[in-house]
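Task: complex structure prediction.
Instruction: return structure tokens for all chains below.
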Amino acid sequence: MTEPALSTRNLNKKFGSLTVARDICLSLPRGARHALIGPNGAGKTSLVNLVTGVLTPDSGDVLLEGEIVTTSSAAQRARRGLARTFQINSLFAKLTPIEAVTLAVCERRGLSGKWWRSLPDFGEAVEEAGEILTSLHLRACATRLTCELPYGEQRLLEIALALATKPAVLLLDEPGAGVPKDETAQVFTAIEALSEDLSILFIEHDMNVVFRFASKIVVMAAGAIVVEGSPPEIARDALVREIYLGKARHG
Amino acid sequence: MAGAAVGAQDLQAWLATRTRWRAVEIAFWLACLTPYVLAPDYLQLASQIAIAALFALSLDLVLGYAGLISLGHAAFFGLGAYTAGLLAANGWGEPLSGLAAAAVFTGACGFLVSFVVVRFRGLALIMITLGLAQMLESAANSANWLTGGADGLQGVAMQPLFGAFSFDLWGRTAYAYSLAVLFLVFLLVRRITNSPFGLSLRGIRENESRMTALGASNRAHLRKAFTLAAAIAGMAGALLTQTTQTASLQTLGFQKSADVLVMLVLGGAGRLYGGLLGALVYMIARDQFSDVDPQYWYFWIGLLLIAVMTFLPGGILGGLSRLLERRRSRAK
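Output:
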């Protein structure tokens, strides 16, 4: 049996009396598309932060391809193929998309220490960055300043930056958050078109999107995994209806 | 696929246009030669401006590009000044090797300090750099036997440059020497800022946590930048000692650190030429103001700084580039 691309073993984290993670055991097989849902404050983003190394768990382990990475730094985990996007855009405002993605490609290829040759001399890196931007329909705005781009394109650039690290696991934290309705489809079509080898765990509030893209749904509440299962199973689950879907329908 | 490849070439070409030499840059450097013809009596001042510009360029690398703020950058300027001075006072008066020795020594000190510096940001970093510089200044002051203390270092005797050009009273050699060093270091820094390493520094300045999420070793990048900036600041200090044949505690002082920050912010940080232009404006303003008002000239510098910050928040160059953009978009 092959190891899951990403898994966690009994992750626990408390901030004072507030539990943000309670005995979280997660398993994301290679090539899977799993959704992480739950009401606000359920601990979804905290879980992403624990997995990526932004937060240190009080106990438990994070494993990449079966290897424990709990003590590795966030940068080390990124170099081992764990990439993420941020719920609130975390971009390089004063760089253009081509610069930002080339920067990410250079970091991955170990070129970022090179100081004696100009950026355009690194043709392959620029070409790769151009291809990533093209694949996410960002080619046309590649030379504009990031801070001047429409929000939907900034969300796509979030994904482009993550892809530039050539990840094995991609954690998408509400990729559609704040995107105008007519641009949401663009974001998710782009996500759907990503390589099938890539394992994706995404947090999303839009249930239409969740049920359309996820092969498995993990439901969190109050820092713990309440239930997990296939979309039909989750849709039938009474507890989920009560804590989440019910609320969403009425709200 | 072919379309994507063509696209990538376009992008490469676009990136290349950003690193290409522009006519205005060439004009700037040619204009730097004009003092020999237009203001031969002011070559000493011109030399001091070139040295201040080199110092500001060094701060631009850490502050403007990497985003590390320092209020103690004069520590490296002073270290370079005393290194070159002590060498010359002890019989090693050859300028170029003295300059190189100062660069290596301050670079090594910068490397050691960088392990502390890169752990902090913002106010904490300002205080730490300030503290380091204050400690060094006090140490230099108390080590009277070595530095000459408050009287300054005596007996700095420079040999002629290349064995042929003596440092004259009018500053002819001094200006040519300072300008040449400034230009060569500028070429180096320009290359660095256009490289993948320079791009990573800008990435750290813009969004450090995102750089971490991309797997970048931010601290290693910052240590490298800080070391290099320290070496350049040391060269600026060494040039001052060599061209004035004296080294004083002022080179290490808080005022020196504040001045270089003012120059850079005045000209526009993160633009390479900002520090150069800021040094030019600041030094000329100081020269003129102190002629008119020898006692309270800093009042006018303060007023100039407030005026520039109010009307041109990105410094003089930031304001100019915004003006150009507006004209360009209007033309479209």
